[in-house]
Specification:
With 160 residues, the chain is mostly helical. It contains 4 helices and no strands. 2% of the residues are buried.
């Protein structure tokens, strides 16, 4: 895109130089050429401005899309947290049921109680860590997609 504008600018420059060097002959012709040169310059400048507006709009659209993706990821995270809490509640209920059935766990025996506690502790740690990693992965994916879309849009290779 830029090469086309540079080509038009170079052509306008050389045409202007030719007009300036042509001397007093053909003054009407020179005036028309100057007018054409002025119009070509204005058109080239407007094309450059339009390209700048297109690029700015493309980057803004990529940013808006990223915000929508982030909102969707946040909504998914809320759903995942609710599911995690439901799973923890279920695991705690299973642990309480195991304590009620196992006399060693009910007595506070180290072996019986530690197995149930270990299950609850590990579930809590795993689900907390999975939530943190999912958040990092979501943010990295959104940032990468946004960067790619903005780059492609600025280059002029806009994808749907």
């Amino acid at each position: 895109m830029e090469n086309r504008h540079l080509g038009a600018s170079r052509g306008a420059f050389f045409l202007g130089r030719t007009v300036a060097m042509s001397g007093p002959c053909g003054m009407g012709h020179q005036a028309r050429l100057r007018e054409w040169l002025a119009q070509a310059t204005i058109a080239a400048l407007e094309a450059v401005r339009e390209e700048g507006r297109r690029r700015t709009a493309a980057v803004e659209k990529a940013r808006d899309d990223a915000q929508e993706l982030a909102a969707a990821a946040a909504a998914n995270a809320v759903g995942a947290r609710a599911e995690r809490d439901r799973l923890r509640t279920h695991a705690n209920a299973l642990a309480r049921a195991a304590v009620a059935r196992d006399p060693d766990a009910a007595d506070g025996s180290p072996t019986g109680a530690s197995a149930v506690d270990l299950l609850a502790y590990m579930l809590s740690r795993v689900s907390g860590r999975a939530e943190a990693l999912a958040g990092v992965a979501d943010r990295a994916r959104i940032a990468g997609l946004t960067c790619e879309r903005a780059y492609e849009a600025v280059r002029g290779n806009v994808r749907p």
